Amino acid sequence: MKRPWTADLGDGTYRNPVLNADWSDPDVVTVGEDHYLTASSFGRFPGLPLLHSRDLVNWTLVGHALDRLEPASDFVVPRHDCGVWAPSIRHHAGRFWIFWGDPDHGVQQVNAERVEGPWTAPHLVKAGKGLIDACPLWDEETGEAYLVHAWAKSRSGVKNRLTGHRMSPDGRELLDEGTTLIDGDTLPGWFTLEGPKLYRHDGWFWILAPAGGVETGWQGAFRSRDFFGPYEERVVLQQGRTDVNGPHQGGWVRTAAGEDWFLHFQSRGAYGRVVHLQPMRWEDGWPVIGDAGEPVSVHRKPAAPEQPVTAPAFDDDFPGGRHGGQWQWAADPGPGWAKEHDGDGLRLACVPTAYAHDLRVLPNVLVQRLPAEEFTVEVDLALDSAVPGANAGLAVLGDAFSWIGLEAGPDGSPLLVHRHAEGVAEHERDAAHPRPAPGGKATLRIEVTAGARCRFHADTGDGFRPSGQVFAATPRRWVGALLGLFATAPAGTGPAGHAHVTAFRTGA
Predict the structure, then answer these.
(1) Which of 96, 158, 342, 393 lies in the 20 to 30 Å Cα band around 323?
(2) pTM reported for the whole predicted model
(3) 172: how many CB neighbours lie within 10 A of its CB?
(4) Quick check: 22 and 479 in contact, CB under 8 A?
């Protein structure tokens, strides 16, 4: 199968989105000729993904900055609306810094000398409920440091407001009680102001922040000669005549060639928040983003040395039993869920649980993003368990879910099963009649077409056969649908064997 999506068209131009997967709430920083991007990871582990590019078009995943979140007790089960919200990445004093807002605990930061790490343990900069979308600024002209953040009404009762602080130069504490820099309620027509990114340019303090809601909003720019205001505002990017709804929240960079560019996301339902790259220029003291303030679909690439055409990896052979960085656990991983071994393939323990009927609440699900609008995914699966009810499979997860895989039947013999649950259902049910799976092996396939419509297939030795009805994938809260691998067993069974997963492949 060929790679499902590349943004680089190979002729000096690119197409949007440059990252056609759910890299939610992206922020970017440039250091020399290198660009680094991070994104929201909510309650998945590891968190704070780190991507690298030399041209802002071709990206690779180079690691994560966060091994775990505290308090750990909050993340032993999936928390899709908690954890890391809208991080900001910066480079200052020879170190990389990432700040984010945890809506239940407050503003936190980690830092490292090298993007590959090691990263410091999370440090709580400001405690409180509903503090989100934090961004720091070190003013190189004055030596002062600042922080701005937004508010989540679900936790604080406050929204449509940006708050600013003076911050200690070491990024560890705030030096005042905070001031409302921009109150969106005072701006006619503005609502849901959030996601601020703070910059210093041409003698002005700049806050680039979206408003109007993720699905239907616009990108705003605010400027002031003084950090504490007052700020002037202007809409600098909106959908206009294009099909790019939103367009929402992102970051500005100036490249080594002196060009300005803006990366932002577009919310696309089950596909999550995909990332677009827009040209940016300055006119009459204000940024102009895209094509006169509307998103571009195809454009010349940024001026940079020619780079190999690439995108973050989705395929995996699981060498030595280790999964690639594209995978995350749905919650804080427990010991023994996946075991390293000689050779290729992932060995997943069939974890006993009373909740095997609902994959949405299981922590021991290994997940990754949908890789494109239309794609096919295949994986080889073997189940080594005779414990009745032990199972393993390949899933599409959101508010609703569907999975196909293997299960040990009442007599321990392996069966091919296909199950699903609607968004309002608490239990899964059969999507197709179970059938024998000789040798406890199967090759599983999901074909995804426009609209995230999923058709399931399986080969148990007699060729691929379709299974069940078409399943329409759904997002879950702010997270797009996810591909998942899992293995479970009924509660109280003790050691229940394992599943062996090999040759995970995606393609068009």
Answers:
(1) 96
(2) 0.97
(3) 12
(4) yes
